[in-house]
Amino acid sequence: MSIDTQTAAKVAKLARIKVEEDALPALANEFNTILGFIEQLNEVDVDGVEPMTSVTPMRLKRREDVVTDGGMQDKILANAPDAREGFFAVPKVVE
């Protein structure tokens, strides 16, 4: 696949990037270079290769999934302009 200057202009417009008319050929060339790299990656045989999270084998850190209240109610309510009985107090807006 080859990108021409019209397609490069369209991509720039969709990305909301202002590109001067004289810079479009260079942009199209950059897009073609990127597509060339992608074609090279598509040629690599990855059958039987397991996905990795890192270049060094390690397990993901896991924690027990427990619901808590955070234990910081006093610290959080200290920032509130008005707090009553352990809750944020807001003005009444419904009559």
UniProtKB/TrEMBL annotation:
Alphabetical list of Gene3D superfamilies matching this protein: Glu-tRNAGln amidotransferase C subunit, N-terminal domain
GO molecular function, a single term: glutaminyl-tRNA synthase (glutamine-hydrolyzing) activity
Statement: the UniProt record of this protein carries the keyword Transferase: yes
Coiled-coil regions listed in the entry: none
Keyword annotations: ATP-binding, Ligase, Nucleotide-binding, Protein biosynthesis, Transferase
Pfam families to which the protein is assigned, alphabetical: GatC
EC number assigned by the record: 6.3.5.-
GO biological process: glutaminyl-tRNAGln biosynthesis via transamidation; regulation of translational fidelity; translation
Catalyzed reactions per annotation: L-glutamyl-tRNA(Gln) + L-glutamine + ATP + H2O = L-glutaminyl-tRNA(Gln) + L-glutamate + ADP + phosphate + H(+); L-aspartyl-tRNA(Asn) + L-glutamine + ATP + H2O = L-asparaginyl-tRNA(Asn) + L-glutamate + ADP + phosphate + 2 H(+)
Role according to the record: Allows the formation of correctly charged Asn-tRNA(Asn) or Gln-tRNA(Gln) through the transamidation of misacylated Asp-tRNA(Asn) or Glu-tRNA(Gln) in organisms which lack either or both of asparaginyl-tRNA or glutaminyl-tRNA synthetases. The reaction takes place in the presence of glutamine and ATP through an activated phospho-Asp-tRNA(Asn) or phospho-Glu-tRNA(Gln).
Subunit text: Heterotrimer of A, B and C subunits.
Family label: Belongs to the GatC family.
PANTHER family xref list: GLUTAMYL-TRNA(GLN) AMIDOTRANSFERASE SUBUNIT C, MITOCHONDRIAL
Name of the featured protein: Aspartyl/glutamyl-tRNA(Asn/Gln) amidotransferase subunit C
